[in-house]
Amino acid sequence: MMPENILIIGGSYFAGRSLVEHLVNEKGFNVFTFNRGNIPLNIQNVTELHGDRTDVDSIKKNIPLMDWDVLIDFCGYTPDDIKKVIHGVKGKIKQYIFISSTSVYDTSSILPLDEKAATLRLPQPELGEYAEYGLNKIKAENLFEKECGKKSISWTILRPSIIYGRFNYAPREAYFFDLIEKDEPVIIPENDLALFTFIYVEDLAKIIIKCMGNKGVHNRVFNTVSHEYFSYKKYLEILEKITKKTIKTIQMSAAKIVQERIPLPFPIDQHQIYSGQKLYKALGFEFTPLSYGLKKTYEFHQFLNQRKRDH
Fold first, then answer.
1. Domains located in the chain, CATH noted
2. 112: cis peptide before it, omega within 30°?
3. Mean pLDDT confidence for 12-30
4. Using CA atoms, how far apart are residues 203 and 71, in angstroms rounded to an integer?
């Protein structure tokens, strides 16, 4: 039986918004979102609930008493975030899908990293304000499994790598789009050996839907990444084809990039590559090639820029 009542924690922007749009297009779902309400969706047949997911009383007050077939959590960053949702949501939660991150993994020379790889045990001070991000995510995962087990909730953890696509609020692909449109050079690492992996935001939405009500993913953890590996050079080659522009580049050492605080959005001196084989075997999902997904993302970027100019 397909799930009906869907509660999405977050859901107003980027990956959450993409999921909501896919669910509405597929029909047959009662879709609810819960967030602070700062970015209204205004999508027909979606019930927008407003409150603070870090406040258990706000959760109890603003999320109605219902049996939830699936709860999907896009913005759980700490163990406390998870605990308050599990104990604050009234009614039965049949399946809880937690969107975690590949940031939970510790560094390793054995690549690509699969779900059995070692996870972080300490903060990463080299990441500055994000030093605790990956560590908090893995702590949240551990508590998530424990608390779901106590309440007999079927759970699934998805660990996306670098997400790209429409409405991306992180300055990743837009960083390059803007430089290209201004005809400004792109600084890249002189050592082009660092490889990284992506997941298209539309693919992530489709994967989540395939997980809903699917016993084959119950109580399991999955890397959520495409099978393609990219370096800065290869990434820019794709952008040249998409934009039909010659991209000027300046090579710079990783140390100088850090020193001059060049905001490159991908790793500059180490691999961040992960295996998505476990998810592929469970779902048989065919990932969108980066060349196509990035093309659609660039077209959307141009559309938004044109709309800004028109207004």
1. 5-165+197-226+272-287 (3.40.50.720)
2. yes
3. 93
4. 19
